[in-house]
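User: Here's a chain of 214 residues. Predict its fold as tokens.
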Amino acid sequence: MKIRKTLLASLLLAVAGIANASTPEELIRPIQEQWAEIKYKQPEKQQAESYNKLAVQARKIVESNPAVAETLIWEGIVLSSEAGAKGGLGALGLAKDAKQRLDEALKINDKALSGSAYTSLATLYAKVPGWPIGFGDKERAEEFFKKSLAINPHGIDPNFFYGEYLADRDRVAEARTYLEAALKAPPRPGRELADSGRRQEAQALLTKLNKEAK
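Assistant: Prediction complete.
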């Protein structure tokens, strides 16, 4: 309960500060920070509800800044995260909404946030069921992962998610290469919690792959 009250208070403070934000980075910072708090500090059973509340705040920022690719990307990330936390066929609508936001961001600036729209779209294509249930497409996923890595070859997120994709496809040697690159990725100022959590995920998957290979 205390965590949820703290999250709500932080959201209210973040929204109050958005009016004074002048750059894309300032606009998205409150969303980034709260996303990391939910992802890496909240119990999994609470995350779907928290992402839902965060998505409402992200939508308000987008509506006030409709031509800013960075805000659309983060709305897409939050919706994707909510879909993942919710799970099942009920998450498909959220995944479709996330895809729409990310597609819109690409039309505005495909290099925004170091190509993050490509990374997030690739992950959606990789994890969402394919036709006729959903829009999942493994070949499209790989295409978009390569585009994201062309823009941000040393980034922690594109390397981790491509490594995860390769591991799921039993391309273990390739997966290790990208997971190790994720662990060596340069730190992102202001994203310490997200970086720490992602490195733990990359290390856990790498350890799992190494154990399975023995």
